[in-house]
Amino acid sequence: MHKNDIQQINFKIVFRVIGMLLCMEAFFMIVPFLVSLWYDESDAFAFLTTIGITIVAGVIMIMTTRNHSKHLAKREGFLIVATTWIFFSIFGMLPFIIHGCIPNVADAFFETISGFTTTGATVLTDIDNLPHGILFWRCFTQWLGGMGIILFTLAILPMLNSGGGIQLFNAETTGITHNKLRPRIGQTAKRLWGMYVAITTVLVICLVLGPMDLFDAICHAMSTTATGGYSTKQASIAYWNSAYIDYVIIFFMYISGINFSIVYFAVVKGDYKSLFKDEEVRWYTYVLILATIAIAAGLFMSGQIQGSAEGTIRSSLFQVVTNITTTGFTTANFNDWGPFYAVILFLVMFFGACAGSTSGGAKTIRLVVLIKNTVNELYRHIHPNAVVPVRVNNKVISYELVSKILAFIFVYLLVFVISSVLLSAMGLTFEEAFGCTLSCLSNIGPGFGRMGSDFALIPDAGIWLLSFVMLVGRLELFTILIIFTPYFWKK
Questions:
Q1: Residue in 253, 259, 250, 256 with CA at minimum distance from that of residue 279
Q2: Residue 325 known to bind ligand
Q3: Pfam families from the entry (predicted)?
Q4: 443 labeled part of a ligand binding site
Q5: What is the distance between the alpha carbons of residues 181 and 286, in angstroms, rounded to a whole number?
Q6: 141 is in an annotated binding site
Q7: Is 307 annotated as a binding residue?
Q8: 214-225 and 185-208 are packed helices; what angle lies between their axes, rounded to 10 degrees?
Q9: H/E element holding 391?
């Protein structure tokens, strides 16, 4: 690579934006620091020290890039988005290390990036005894990562609301198309974050009305709206053993699995019909209902009734919703139910909920397009001269977009298989290797086999691999993988 090949990338704007974001992260850490002070616990020093380190690093990056060009194109957008999640995780893991609850660097990075990517996979085996500040920070990382760190930045930094802002918006948001609620990208970001905060607030109120105290309600509201899955209890939602809590969490997980642009128009504009006029939402709902019926029927027929008939249906519905939205909360260990149930949940994990939501997975819209394109191919075998486009919501999906979806699914499967093979080489069983990889790639959380509740048994090499897989899954493959291509760095 020649020296002049990389001069076209504006590295100064990349580092300057990251510096600003690190200062923002330090500001966010004030909240768990105050929580630590309120409960008078030992983690206050860890947060205070981390805040100082993070601010210094951010200010240095800003000061050393004062004379910068404001040019922000696609490559700068990809670099900012990709490196921001890494930098946030590096500095975000410091409270775990300094406090000593996760002294291993690999484990601390894994726990933090699992939070920011809303995966919810954990290496912790005694969550109940962690201090409140650490518990709050875990859930807060998920809430920040759910709607997106960059999207939050676009909402508050006017300097990024120029033409370059759309590059950042497209690089971080999920799905095959990106809806703008307002002409300016900053206005769209503000409205999406406003909706996000409103849903979280309503959920806090609903949970407090049940058996949860305010602290647990806030933490679980953040994890639920972000479809993250971190809990303040090792037993997760099962700890409360409450039908009310289960149903409230189920409803808000379902809402958080819908495209937030559609939720915005339904709630703010009163266009409730748009919710079920949208084809992706209908497919998402149908898959959820069918999977619940299949699991509940299987449990009834096999005699594995979860307390009562209502409890069995509720447990089935909870496990399906938490897996299809890639939240990862648990009220029962589905690994104990048998392989039939694991396969159904494995399938809903793969595709996830709707694009434009906080959920992970390959997204329902891609499943819809794949099925329709396959049906069209079968038709063209009988009528080779027919022109039958793929339509979603009565709109034609271009051939280029169909091709992009096919490429996405291929790369998704390729990353899945390669990572699973590497994990199996590290001593994991077939079920554990494939289950943990899917859990991290689809940003779900719980694994399979011995990793059903935590990932503590995975060696450091596997932890670093799965950390990368989580980031690749959260940014939907191409935003990360394109950086490893040689043509990305050339003119």
A1: 259
A2: no
A3: TrkH
A4: yes
A5: 27
A6: no
A7: no
A8: 140
A9: strand 390-392
